[in-house]
Amino acid sequence: xxxxxxxxxxxxxxxxxxxxxxxxxxxxxxxxxxxxxxxxxxxxxxxxxxxxxxxxxxxxxxxxxxxxxxxxxxxxxxxxxxxxxxxxxxxxxxxxxxxxxxxxxxxxxxxxxxxxxxxxxxxxxxxxxxxxxxxxxxxxxxxxxxxxxxxxxxxxxxxxxxxxxxxxxxxxxxxxxxxxxxxxxxxxxxxxxxxxxxxxxxxxxxxxxxxxxxxxxxxxxxxxxxxxxxxxxxxxxxxxxxxxxxxxxxxxxxxxxxxxxxxxxxxxxxxxxxxxxxxxxxxxxxxxxxxxxxxxxxxxxxxxxxxxxxxxxxxxxxxxxxxxxxxxxxxxxxxxxxxxxxxxxxxxxxxxxxxxxxxxxxxxxxxxxxxxxxxxxxxxxxxxxxxxxxxxxxxxxxxxxxxxxxxxxxxxxxxxxxxxxxxxxxxxxx
Length: 430
Prior knowledge:
Number of domains: 2
CATH class of the largest domain: Alpha Beta
Structural class: alpha+beta
Order of helices and strands: HHHEHEEHEHEHEHHHEEEEHHEEEEEE
């Protein structure tokens, strides 16, 4: 184990958190008069976490194509267009430093602007853009042999290589080159599950941006406005305030609320509509998942009751969050599927639910009756996750959806999604 790994220990983690103070909602500028996010410290922390997880595993190296894992290991990002292209990858061996293969001139750019990576470790590469360049042309074979050679040089060729996501032809070429391919995603998720102070600050900043977006929605949600109008305005607001990716905005109103369709349309808002929104976006890669429900002008008793029930389910579950609790402890506060009209837990998946947040929308922990009751996992200080509930109204079409993002502290949890949601907000009151 090298010196970089030894520097990050459990004793190093606890002093980062001063839970007696409010979490900072920092500006996006760098300043000389207060400490904000230290991105080089963030890089060292993330790389050390991966090295520790790799050391604990049976793997000799990690080969990652998932853009979130590439960013976590190398602190590089070239744009959202590359998210589904499998056009970049990185290698980390037990004995070496990260090697990054990037798209064309991006590799040359990294040599100039990423001094935390060795210049010789920034390489141009192309494996085929998801089959657009046919595997028979030899690019995958060339890079598989290059990777195998680097692994032999690192002295770990007798150990499996962990891969997160990969095109089948590339995996076949790695095996032909003499490598034994295992699952590497679990090692990466283990590394990513505990957030540093810098990561928490970025997640908190991302949530603060959505606080503002919900105030905008509250002001603009009125009869005659369409779901897609709200989506457009929120996109503008978030990109103006520094978002690097507005992944999705669910905007769901009126009769579309039940069952939950997870999208938006051009439906026009009408008086009395119940409407809920989910804003998924990222700041410096760190993501939000943040639902709020509103009524327009007025609300019926059935709509109020649905909201009150969803809030109670959420509060009961959040009350169980603390270090040492299990995902089953929290999940047992969620209602069973038949309590809100679903035939089985798989059909209801994602409605009474919690999921880790970080560079990806879904990290550890996952809390759901589909998996958590039979396979409980431990809640740990420094985890950050979103927890959400959904309750259909007795009118047969309205529904309430509420979600909070929480940081697990030394004694419980801290909510970082601060747009008021204790009671049903009513916009455009008459």
